[in-house]
Amino acid sequence: METDGLEWLLVPMHQLVSWGAAGAMVFGGVVPYIPQYRDIRRTQNAEGFSTYVCLVLLVANILRILFWFGRRFESPLLWQSIIMIITMLLMLKLCTEVRVSNDLNIKRRSFAAADSKDEEIKAPPRRSYLDFDLNYFWHWSKFTDYVQCVLTFTGVTGYITYLWLDSSLFVETLGFLAVFSEAMLGVPQLYRNYQNRSTEGM
């Protein structure tokens, strides 16, 4: 009888805990990037943050979403991938704006410091996704280039997934690649820290 009496309380509590866990799963992955975003925005310095982290997470989450079409998993994980993609695009947008702004400031300082009008001031070259220059891959001057690259990757992998969706081997490989690429997340930041000899800006 007591169990029946407490059931009215336990069912909503269970539902509340379930929603809380799902919310934590969806938004938990992006929480570490909030202070990083604010720090980059405040200092106008993105040198400590590797944009390759964004690349790895974008690839991993796009592959995870495509994997969902072959083998359905819990919807909070699907939403987590969507939220993470949006977050990484926002991080890329900020980092690109900061980098371009800093390049312009350097150009202005160089111009002001020039003694002679004849002295030519060279602006940093603009890099584009459509240059297809592998030396500057993921170091483009405009955010739209990153979006084009992400859309191209999504379109190509989406089409391949559509063609091979009936193959369980392909679907499992897709899932493995999603998990594997996400597991390699620390490598770009580790390399950036090694180059900078610092963890500042992480």
Automatic annotation (TrEMBL):
InterPro entries: PQ-loop_rpt (IPR006603), SLC66/Scramblase_ANY1 (IPR052241). The keyword Cytoplasm does not apply. The chain crosses the membrane at residues 16-37, 49-71, 77-95, 146-165, 171-191. Gene3D superfamilies: 1.20.1280.290. The lineage of its organism: Eukaryota, Metazoa, Chordata, Craniata, Vertebrata. The keyword Isomerase does not apply. It is a multi-pass membrane protein. One of its GO terms (cellular component) is endosome. Keywords: Membrane, Repeat, Transmembrane, Transmembrane helix. GO terms for biological process: phospholipid translocation; retrograde transport, endosome to Golgi. It is found in: Membrane. This is Solute carrier family 66 member 2.
